TrEMBL record:
Annotated ranges, domain ABC transporter: 4-243
Any one Gene Ontology molecular-function term assigned to this protein's record: ATP binding
Organism: Thalassobaculum fulvum
Keyword set includes ATP-binding: yes
UniProt KW keywords: ATP-binding, Nucleotide-binding
Name of the protein this chain belongs to: ABC transporter ATP-binding protein
InterPro entries in the cross-refs: AAA+_ATPase, ABC_carbohydrate_import_ATPase, ABC_transporter-like_ATP-bd, P-loop_NTPase
Highest taxon in the source lineage: Bacteria
SMART domains attached to this UniProt entry: AAA
Amino acid sequence: MSVLELQGISKSFGAIRALSEVSLTVRPGEVIGLMGDNGAGKSTLVKIIGGNFAPSAGSIRIADRTVQFARPVEAREAGIEVVYQDLALCDNLTAAANVFLGREPTRGVGPFRVLDYGAMYRRAAELFAELKSETRPRDLVRSMSGGQRQAVAIARARLSDSRLVLMDEPTAAISVRQVAEVLDLIRRLRDRGVAVILVSHRMPDVFGVADRVVVLRRGRLVADRPAGDSSPEEVTGLITGAIEAV
């Protein structure tokens, strides 16, 4: 059974056609590298899957059920989480508070309730252990490295027991060591059966973790193949148009 199936997805903004008949199937525990030049349609496709945009045409199926997302919360309820490039973290809060932001557990009686920090710290610690991250629940995000911040964002995505995580340029503007940490986090998700769509311009990162490579060019899907059957040189040719669709 597939986690996600897109059939003929198209999206237009007035006279501008951002996507044209894109079809894609994502399976459990699969990492897909989504690549393309600026303006190729990657962000639009991510926002459609994440519930920010409705497609102009085509269908979305989750676990063999056709769905229509009107809001991001509906995609989250269907098991889809998006980790955007800016991560949307609050620097003045702890790792645990960021993991539970907007979903904080409470304790008490009737209307007299307070935040259950103990439960947040315990669950956050479990999520970081699951990801084999050294991030600590009580640490402030402002003091964290880029890799640790990604761990917080991914732990937040795991809180709802997601089946698919979309990651938008997670290794941009971080050090080599932190890149290795993020790629390890992606492998941890895959090992737990979570599917990942990795949007990236970095060829070594994509070919380091992806099972399949999907290339968009001018809103059209021009390649969808096992990463082992492709190469950075071929993907570069597909992105620029030097190589036709394969």
